[in-house]
Amino acid sequence: MKNAPVKNVFTRFAGLSITELAAKHGTPVFLYDQEIIEKRVSELQQFDAIRYAQKACSNLAILALMKKLGVVVDAVSAGEVFRAMKAGFKPEGEPPGILFTADLFDADAVEIIRTHRIPVNVGSPDMITQLGKFCPGALVTLRLNPGFGHGHSRKTNTGGEWSKHGIWHAQLEECLRLGREAGVKIHGLHMHIGSGTDFEHLSEVCDAMVSAARRGGPQIDVISAGGGLPIPYHKEEPRIDVGAYFHLWDKARKQIEKDLGHAVRLEVEPGRYLVAESSALVTQIRSIKKTGDNLFYLVDAGFDTLVRPAMYGSYHDISICPADGREISNSQEVVVAGPLCESGDVFTQEEGGVVVTRLLPEAQVGDYLVLHDTGAYGAAMSSNYNTRKLAKEVLISNGSDEVIRERQSLEHILQFERIPARFL
Q1: What is the pLDDT of residue 149?
Q2: Which tens digit of pLDDT belongs to each residue from 204-226?
Q3: What is the model's pLDDT at position 148?
Q4: 175 is an active site residue
Q5: 261: helix, coil or strand?
Q6: Of 388, 379, 371, whose CA–CA distance to 58 is shortest?
Q7: Which of helix, strand or coil describes residue 319?
Q8: Selected catalytic residue, list 175, 206, 321, 341
Q9: Per-residue 3-state assignment (H helix, E strand, C coil) for 195-255
């Protein structure tokens, strides 16, 4: 599409030149703006505790920043517990610095929970009895499935009868009995039902929490609103009203305090909200070609680097940074795709794998392409598929850039593989 107004030209990130950052660090590279993370944390400080869902972005530097900002963390694996401890978090405290959330215990989780006495947010009744055997006296919250869910994709909806997550609401009393028999201390309720939210739906969740807390009785002294606070991936979307979000949950908490006769801590568990907008993935256009009526920009990042579009059909805003600093006067409809030997390695696709075009500035081979809002489930979900190196990660603060994950070497990728002697 010629002669259209040229938008989506983006040359600086966190005040620094993208071309200079790309020349210094190579591509693909995840850039993070520390100031944005700090701002998002500050927006949620009405809650008694902000518990970061580190699965969104678990880089040690990001975790250490969260600790510095007074945030505690949620871990969903033994590896995430290990990461949190490496970043300086401790399981004790009020609120606990680390909480383990899962629907089962694997062998690694059993060992690290038993050794460090990590509080647990259990998602299956079986876990209560098991926990009593390997960690008697453990501090426990129950993750409840209220019977309904919400989310931008079926794959992110964590409530309802088709979700594997959480304890079915009708089993609450059974779980309290199991807790007494197992000798663990069930003291809280957690209700996370999916990414994305609207206030009509949220009020139903809050009502479900109030009802569950009444059934839980006086032993309940903490409730968690879970996470799922959305961010505007489409720039025309409104931002969530965090004040209104807090108000609904605080109203529920006050009702619970009235019902139970004592104070109740209100936690929130954001992941995406704290980090998504802090990051951009910078990749280089390595080839431009026509296939029938479609024009492709082929870049050096693939779904091994950023899997959300391929997995969920997720949208990321895209910009072009001209490598030579030239003015761009034209735009065109293009498909943006990566280097992997997979037809699904396309960044401009919708849920179900439908490939679409995006109106982008007219680019040249060697220009940089910027995928925005990649801080959540970007680097954290990357892989070595096609034996490709994990991208470098760089944190920017006060005009300075610092590497927080080096790019892998091929030797590093292969270091744990072994060829049997009989094949040599």
Answers
A1: 56
A2: 999 999 999 999 999 999 999 99
A3: 74
A4: no
A5: coil
A6: 379
A7: strand
A8: 341
A9: CCCCHHHHHHHHHHHHHHHHHHCCCCCEEECCCCCCCCCCCCCCCCCHHHHHHHHHHHHHH
* Residue entry with tokens 């899997």: 307
**What single-letter DSSP state applies at residue 115?**
H
Q: Which helix (H) or strand (E) holds 189?
A: strand 185-190
Which residue in this structure is represented by tokens 């200079």?
A: 20
CA geometry: angle 156, 159, 160, nearest 5 deg: 125
Task: Give the pairing of strands 185-190 and 222-224.
Answer: parallel
Please provide residue 337's backbone torsions phi and psi, each rounded to the nearest 5 degrees.
-135, 165
Residue-by-residue DSSP string for 13-72: ETTEEHHHHHHHH-SSEEEEEHHHHHHHHHHTTTSSEEEEEGGG---HHHHHHHHHTT-E
pLDDT value of residue 157: 43
d(CA 295, CA 213): 56
CA gap 403, 355 in Å, rounded: 34
Burial of 90 (0-12, 13-18, 19+ CB in 10 A): middle
Q: How far apart are CA 125 and CA 181, in angstroms?
A: 12
Residue ranges of the chain with per-residue pLDDT less than 70: 1-5, 149-162, 194-197
Q: What is the pLDDT at residue 200?
A: 86
Give the count of beta carbons closer than 10 Å to the beta carbon of residue 243: 9
